[in-house]
Amino acid sequence: ELNRALAKMPPIDPAARQQLEEMTRRIVNKLLHDPVEALKHGDSTHGLAAERYLHAMEKMFHLDSGEPPTQ
Fold first, then answer.
1. In terms of Cα–Cα distance, which of 25, 4, 9, 21 is closest to 71?
2. More exposed terminus of the chain, fewer Cβ within 10 Å: N or C?
3. Sign, Cα dihedral of 7, 8, 10, 16
4. Contact between residue 12 and residue 19 where contact means Cβ atoms under 8 Å apart
5. 65 confidence band (pLDDT: 50, 70, 90)
């Protein structure tokens, strides 16, 4: 998605592109941190949350249907 957005923008310098790439990685990491932790540590403190995150991941990535995810 970053490349798609950059293709629609005027050219930017390499340092600005690197900052945008890093910002994108940080946003994705923040969004996925809690769900991934709940899945990794599916213990009693995350039990129900882990089940919900797992179900959401299965739906998001079509893990239960055998079909590729849509883009």
1. 4
2. C
3. negative
4. no
5. low
- pTM of this prediction exceeds 0.85: no
> Would you say the C-alpha torsion 15, 20, 23, 24 has a positive or negative sign?
negative
Binned at pLDDT 50, 70 and 90, residue 47 comes out as low
Tokens of 7: 């293709």
What is the residue whose two structure tokens read 């990535």?
Answer: 61
**Half-sphere exposure in the Cβ direction for 38 (13 Å, CA):** 18
Judged by DSSP in three states, 11 sits in coil
Please state, as a whole number, how many other Cβ atoms lie within 10 Å of the Cβ of residue 27: 10
What is residue 1's three-state secondary structure?
coil
